[in-house]
Amino acid sequence: MMPSQDQLIPLESLVDLQTTKAAGPKDPARPYVGLEHIATESSTLLGSHPSSYSDGVNCVFEVNDILFGKLRPNLRKCVLAPFDGYCSTDILVLRAKEGTNCRYAARVLQSEQLFRAAVATAAGTKMPRTSWSDLKRVKAVTARTVEEQRRIATILDLVDAAIERTQPLIAKLHQVRSGLLADLVTDGIGMARTAPLVSRAAIRFSSVNKLTEHGEMPVRLCNYTDVYKNTYILSYMPFMRATASAAEVARFGLRVGDVIITKDSETPDDIGVPAVVDSTAPDIVCGYHLALIRPDLKSLDPLFLAMQLKHTRLARYFGRQASGSTRYGLSTRSIEQAPILKLPVYEQKRRSDVLREHDRAAAQVRLEAGKLRAIKAGLMSDLLSGQVRVSACLKTAEVR
Question: Helix or strand or coil: residue 200?
Fold first, then answer.
């Protein structure tokens, strides 16, 4: 059962704000921590600078103090300090009161309820900040014994450790993919054996905007960010809702095997970024600012085409072809004349299958990490709110 507000205690019952400041020359043995060193939605401290990095006024913190980012609280930055140091004045330094486990207090400050309260109380438009005077009155948890606090912290620490173990593997798989992509696109292939893309694919620029017009067909719109952030376009992705004419749906409706690329952007580096349509539906259409490439499947494997478009050779080509001053764009001709490697389609598919298998393995690791984060979120909600008491769980487990 969810405890009532009367059963909850304010945050100021658990922690005190530390206000000690330091200016000028600082102790070189104490590192400096900025907001950039605190990971978003994580319990991880990413690094630090030498104390000489900041010559202005800094907050002073001690080991096991809690560092809570008050600037742009929507970034959800909060970490338990693993050492003594200095930090930005955009970070609240909070210390667990006597009778409060510091690891438990840190978990309370990392809870969804606290972050929501921080966002709700933030003042300012460009640089929103929350304050201790607002946060200290937030009621988030019920009163607990120190032993129960310790048990809750230990449970959440174990889940965090499991999540952290997935991160190096995800990073390694990303690194391997970059090398794999380069090898699969170039290994054993003569760079002189190329043909213009238009000889092996149909290319069209989408005119479907984000508006909803009366009398048009409702559609799901595959937009710029959908392509930019994903290697594969899948029918169950959360596409934007819009409308399009019947002619636009017929011309720009997505088919399995289509390759979509970004055709204009604020920087040339973001042009020509590809995504392959792996699954689709009749109401999914290609949106504005994108080029729809429909390969001749008898001569061009879609994923191998995307691999080439992602490779530095074609990235440089598109960078040279892009025109504009504040916004860069590609012409139809520049995409049509993009030099695509000539390779038998069975060999293209063999190479793309290698990358696809790697991507499946990487997706599985990310899925497992996502499940662990979901478990952590559920545990934090149940344990910190008092819906589930750790001592009762342990007694039940011992009886069984």
Answer: coil
Q: Are strands 66-69 and 91-96 parallel, antiparallel or unpaired?
A: antiparallel
User: Which two structure tokens, joined as six digits, stand for 393?
Assistant: 């769980």
Tokens of residue 195, six digits: 């043909």
The pLDDT confidence band at residue 267, using thresholds 50, 70 and 90, is confident
Q: Does pLDDT of 197 surpass 90?
A: yes
The Cα–Cα gap between 113 and 10 comes to 12
- Is the Cβ–Cβ distance between 68 and 109 less than 8 Å? yes
Q: Are 238 and 317 in contact (CB under 8 A)?
A: no
Distance CA 140, CA 3 (A): 10
* pLDDT reading at 120 higher than 70: yes
Could you please report the per-residue DSSP string of 72-113?
SGGG--EEE-SS-EEE-TTEEEEEEPTTS-HHHHHHHHTSHH
Structure tokens at 237: 């992705």
Buried b (16+ CB within 10 A) or exposed e, 135-159: bbebbbbbebeeebbebbbebbeeb
Question: Domains along the chain?
Answer: 5-143 (3.90.220.20), 146-189+344-400 (1.10.287.1120), 195-342 (3.90.220.20)
Return the pLDDT at 199: 95
